[in-house]
Amino acid sequence: MAKSAQVNAGKVSAGDFFSDAVKELKKVHRPTRQETVQASLVVIVMLFLFAAFLGLADMAIGRLMQWVLA
Questions:
Q1: In sequence order, what DSSP letters do the residues of 6-44 get, joined into one string?
Q2: What integer pLDDT is reported at residue 63 of this predicted model?
Q3: Residues 66, 40: one domain?
Q4: Which terminus of the chain is more solvent-facing, meaning fewer CB atoms within 10 Å of its CB: N or C?
Q5: Same domain for 38 and 5?
């Protein structure tokens, strides 16, 4: 933070705020195309695995309930 922000007990001028924001944005890591594709594939695979698990659990519980209530 700028010195003026420390002196003014938490009050930050607009100029200091935007200069600090620009400094922080320069530190941001933007993923490459390959990283984005890999992360997306992981999400899609996990989505299908979780959907299959929930489907099988629903079917098993449904059959159990039919057996109990029959």
A1: HHTTT---HHHHHHHHHHHHHTPPPPPHHHHHHHHHHHH
A2: 97
A3: yes
A4: C
A5: no
Q: Which domain does 68 fall in, by range?
A: 31-70
Percent of the chain having pLDDT more than 70?
Answer: 87
- CA 39, 45, 49, 52 torsion: positive or negative? positive
Mapped onto helix, strand or coil, the DSSP state of residue 4 is: helix
Neighbours of 12 (CB within 10 A): 15
Give the H or E element holding residue 66. Answer: helix 33-69
- In this structure, the chain runs to a length of 70
Flag whether pLDDT at 25 surpasses 80: yes
Amino acid making up residue 12: V
Does the pLDDT value for residue 52 go beyond 60? Answer: yes
